[in-house]
Amino acid sequence: MEEYLKYSRVFKALGDPKRAMIVDMLSCGELCACMILQKFEMSQSTLSHHMKILCECGLVKAREQGKWTYYSLNKDTVNNIKQFLCDITSDKENCICRENADNCKGCDEYE
Amino acid sequence: MEEYLKYSRVFKALGDPKRAMIVDMLSCGELCACMILQKFEMSQSTLSHHMKILCECGLVKAREQGKWTYYSLNKDTVNNIKQFLCDITSDKENCICRENADNCKGCDEYE
DNA sequence: GTTTCATATTGACGCATTTCGATTTGATGC
DNA sequence: GCATCAAATCGAAATGCGTCAATATGAAAC
């Protein structure tokens, strides 16, 4: 379950449309907070909160320079969850989560 | 924003570790609800609720057969969000979300 | 050092989510 | 028909989330 928790934290961060859009914006390169804020109708504190969530799950990196904070996408984290999605779409012969499949009458009938 | 909402609904569904695990279980093939329930310490009503969320976002398909309901992964939906992740990790020259980048003093200084 | 500006933090407010026990629905078997 | 079983739905409680205004922090400019 620890493994799933690791992934789900990132998925949860992307589970807000505004955060998904922010991540998409950052895919073109680093941006400062004020630039991101321009694109949304939200308060500065709300944006700051969203950026914190994106940073805490590892999706986004923050770089402070003087007054400004520059945010960039952490592609390693994106690749991690991309790998998870690849794993679940690849064909598998057998699977550990199926080990007790015989205990289920319904599944027996189906097989 | 509509586009991001479409993606974020799926991400949100994966944003719960139990649901991420269920999706992983289904990656090996169709399973009935009772089989999934065996693997978790949760009530039957709670599982039913999670399955509804997974179905409503399009990640999982339900097939009813008599008393039993069989769930399977909808790989098309997984491939959709995989494509989004591929897009944001690919190198881009320019990006529509950057169109007003000059308005930001901070960004100007940085460039 | 005081002002100004960008960002973070705090506290509060509704709203959504997770969870459960209890009940309902709908199919199967007697 | 009646009992049984799988799954869905309902109602309620606890927790979490998105949002804002107000305030705090901390760097730059004067």
Descriptive report:
Two copies of one chain form a homodimer. Chain A is α+β, with helices and mostly antiparallel strands and 111 residues long. Chain A has one domain: Orthogonal Bundle (Arc Repressor Mutant, subunit A), CATH 1.10.10. Chain A is 56% helix and 13% strand. Chain A contains six helices and three strands, in the order H-H-E-H-H-E-E-H-H. Chain A has helices at residues 2-13, 17-26, 33-38, 44-56, 75-89, 105-110; strands spanning 31-32, 60-65, 68-73. The longest helix of chain A has 15 residues, at 75-89. The two termini of chain A are 27 Å apart. Chains A and B meet through helix 1, helix 2, strand 1, helix 3 and strand 3 of A and helix 1, helix 2, strand 1, helix 3 and strand 3 of B. The first copy, chain A, binds a DNA duplex (30 and 30 nucleotides) through residues 16, 18, 32-34, 42-52, 64, 66-69, 106.
Q: Taking strands numbered 1, 2, ... along the chain, how are they ordered across the largest sheet of chain A?
A: 1-3-2
Q: Which percent band covers the strand fraction of chain A? A: 5-15%
Mean pLDDT of chain A: 85
Radius of gyration of chain A: 19 Å
Helical fraction of chain A equals 55-70%
Q: Low-confidence segments of chain A, ≥5 residues, pLDDT <50? A: 98-111
H-E order of chain A: HHEHHEEHH
Class by SSE composition of chain A: alpha+beta
Give the biggest sheet of chain A. Answer: 3 strands, antiparallel
Largest interface: A-B, 62 and 62 residues
Topology of helices and strands:
The structure is a homodimer of 111-residue chains.
Chain A: H1 2-13, H2 17-26, E1 31-32, H3 33-38, H4 44-56, E2 60-65, E3 68-73, H5 75-89, H6 105-110
The structure holds a DNA duplex (30 and 30 nucleotides).
